């Protein structure tokens, strides 16, 4: 089984720089593991599982390592510096899976009918010049973190549906994209609602479409680990997924279904998200970020296949990579399989 340091993992990525159905937890005897995360509301299942003791109940002592983008997380998983993480499928992640370094083992954030999801945005300069719909982005500059990122996928799929051309501009980090959008250096972008809505509410940017209109049931993020953990640490991996799934259930109860205390949930999430803001100012953005985190970490395999097909069609990953190289289907329920 491949084990990589971070330098080797980056090299293998080439030019692209990425519960229902669960068994009872296999107790891991208080083993310390590292979990990669972004300080986004969409990563709340892991935060809840730690704060409410679900990881501890499963025999895991969890330490978080925080990142600013998906690709470094994929590298950290491949190198063994981090054990589990949640992130979008990217060209880099697929390339590492082809090399036998990582496996997708479950699903996390999803677009779901009836739940307000990710948005397509226009800069104020573009909007004032007539870019009031996604179709009007024809020929415009569209921001992505990197070529082969989920932003690239969302923009390209929208452009294909509208029959338009976009000029993709890689800006590496979300903060850099926000700055470029505000200054009018780029014209369009897509992002999760807890970032999109406040920006639109301030008038700095404008919402011009919904990602779900172009990508219904899009599996936005996945749970993944090293191929070694997936193959050789089954008990530990099941324990992690079990704790994660309990966190997702609590999140849905409070933030979507209205069957649990939302204020208490916002207090918990605020320990990790928008920590530089006082609670009163952070709460609206945390609430705006509410999207479905799949029950039981179920994975929409049909959506993952569509993403893999797109990366291959764009020449961003090898045409011979199979879904079996990317996904270990033995851990959770597969939707659309």
UniProtKB/TrEMBL annotation:
GO cellular component, alphabetical, reads: periplasmic space
- Family statement drawn from the similarity comment of this UniProt entry: Belongs to the bacterial solute-binding protein SsuA/TauA family.
Q: Which InterPro entries match?
A: SsuA/THI5 (IPR015168), TAT_signal (IPR006311)
Q: Which GO terms describe its biological process?
A: alkanesulfonate transmembrane transport
SUPFAM superfamilies assigned to the protein according to its UniProt record, in alphabetical order? Periplasmic binding protein-like II
Name used for this protein in its record = NMT1/THI5 like protein
Keyword Membrane tagged: no
Q: Which residues form the signal peptide?
A: 1-28
Report whether Signal shows up as a keyword of the record. Answer: yes
Main subcellular location: periplasm
Q: Which Pfam families match?
A: NMT1 (PF09084)
Tell me the ranges covered by the SsuA/THI5-like domain, including all copies: 41-252
Q: Which PROSITE patterns match?
A: TAT
Please provide the record's keywords in A-Z order.
Signal
Query: Which cellular compartments is it found in?
Result: Periplasm
What organism is recorded for this protein?
Answer: Pelagimonas varians
């Amino acid at each position: 089984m491949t084990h990589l340091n971070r330098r080797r993992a980056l090299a293998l990525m080439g030019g692209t720089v990425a519960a229902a159905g669960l068994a009872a937890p296999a107790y891991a005897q208080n083993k310390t593991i590292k979990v990669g995360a972004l300080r986004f509301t969409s990563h709340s299942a892991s935060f809840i599982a730690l704060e409410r003791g679900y990881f501890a109940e499963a025999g895991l002592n969890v330490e978080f390592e925080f990142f600013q983008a998906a690709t470094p997380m994929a590298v950290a998983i491949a190198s063994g510096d981090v054990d589990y993480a949640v992130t979008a499928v990217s060209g880099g992640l697929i390339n590492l899976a082809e090399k036998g370094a990582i496996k997708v083992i479950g699903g996390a954030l999803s677009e779901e009918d009836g739940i307000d999801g990710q948005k397509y945005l226009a800069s104020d300069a573009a909007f004032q010049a007539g870019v009031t719909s996604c179709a009007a982005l024809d020929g415009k500059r569209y921001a992505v973190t990197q070529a082969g990122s989920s932003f690239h996928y969302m923009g390209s799929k929208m452009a294909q549906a509208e029959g338009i051309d976009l000029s993709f501009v890689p800006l590496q980090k979300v903060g850099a994209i926000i700055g470029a959008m505000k200054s009018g250096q780029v014209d369009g972008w897509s992002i999760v609602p807890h970032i999109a809505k406040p920006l639109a509410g301030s008038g700095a940017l404008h919402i011009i479409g919904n990602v779900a209109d172009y990508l219904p049931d899009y599996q936005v993020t996945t749970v993944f680990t090293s191929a070694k953990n997936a193959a050789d640490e089954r008990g530990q991996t099941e324990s992690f997924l079990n704790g994660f799934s309990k966190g997702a259930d609590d999140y849905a109860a409070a933030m979507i279904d209205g069957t649990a205390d939302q204020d208490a949930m916002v207090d918990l999430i605020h320990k990790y998200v928008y920590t530089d803001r006082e609670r009163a100012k952070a709460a609206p953005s945390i609430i705006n970020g509410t999207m479905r985190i799949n029950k039981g970490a179920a994975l929409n395999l049909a959506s993952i296949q569509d993403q893999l097909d797109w990366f291959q069609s764009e020449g961003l990953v090898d045409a011979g990579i199979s879904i079996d190289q990317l996904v270990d289907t033995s851990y959770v329920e597969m939707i659309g399989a």
